[in-house]
Amino acid sequence: MDRKEFLQSFDFTGRTAVVTGGAGVLCGEISCMLAALGARVAILDLMPERAGKWRSRLEELRCEHLVLPCDVLKRESVDAAITQVLARWESIDFLINGAGGNKPGATTSSDLSFFDLPDEALRFVFDLNLLGTIIPSQVVGRHMAEQSRGVVLNISSMNALRPLTRIPAYSSAKAGVSNFTQWMAVHMAQNYSPEIRVNAIAPGFFMTAQNRFLLVDEKSGQLTERGRSIIAHTPAGRFGVPQDLLGAVVWLLSPSSAFVTGTVLPVDGGFQAYSGV
């Protein structure tokens, strides 16, 4: 492969990407990056009205795009959204499963012990992260099986590899996402086509809305003890920013990673590698 051919592998012109949770900060940046590389982008989100900022950027990039309501925990909702995508563009090349998150009610604290975490909060976090990845993978995966090609990229977490204190449901659910990524990679390659790849990224610590309440004191605006500890154990010395994910995402979606499937790639500033000593 010469230089020109290698660079062309990152040209997504004519490709269609579906991004669940696409109105969020991380997946919104991913959507715009895909658009900048020529892809057509469908943002699926439970609250599509949050996608205004991303819609404006996609329009500036002159990207063909859709913003659709979608509840990743309801198969009929996912089916309806994917039907609209296929009616517009006929095929789907990439699925980024970005819908997920934690919930304060599933987080231990001085006021809420592990023994008292409510079932409904635990179930919400499990369902959102794990079922919210599996159901879209079933719906879009069926289409990819019919066309014998495609790339699924799941969003796992550093918590799947190094479970943190206080968030048992989120850590366990993301561990399930990593395991499912490996399972689906093997299943799709063996039963449908080796041209269907399934990978995941495992972001480290990013200052997003879902974990800000754990990292920053609401009154003072200063880092909490937990936030300071994370920085101390991150060799890069900072929290991640959305742009830190883009290179890994582009590579895993592109033909340059054609021999990579079933992999969970940390993007963590070295957190996993550091023993603390």
Keyword list:
277 residues; 7-stranded parallel β-sheet; alpha/beta; globular
Topology, element by element:
Elements (H helix, E strand, L loop, with lengths): L2 H6 L7 E5 L4 H12 L3 E6 L6 H9 L4 E5 L5 H15 L4 E4 L21 H29 L2 E6 L2 H4 L6 H24 L4 E8 L5 H7 L9 H8 L13 H8 L10 E4 L10
Parallel strand pairs: 1-2, 1-4, 2-3, 4-5, 5-6, 6-7
Q: Which range best describes the helical content: under 10%, 10-25%, 25-40%, 40-55%, 55-70% or over 70%?
A: 40-55%
In round numbers, the mean pLDDT is 94
The DSSP helix count reads 10
- The largest sheet has its strands arranged as 3-2-1-4-5-6-7
How widely separated are the two ends?
A: 42 Å
Biggest β-sheet: count, sense, barrel? 7 strands, parallel
Radius of gyration: 19 Å
The structural class is alpha/beta
Beta-strand content estimate? 5-15%
Tell me the number of strands: 7
H/E series: HEHEHEHEHEHHEHHHE
What is the 3D form? globular
Show unreliable segments: none
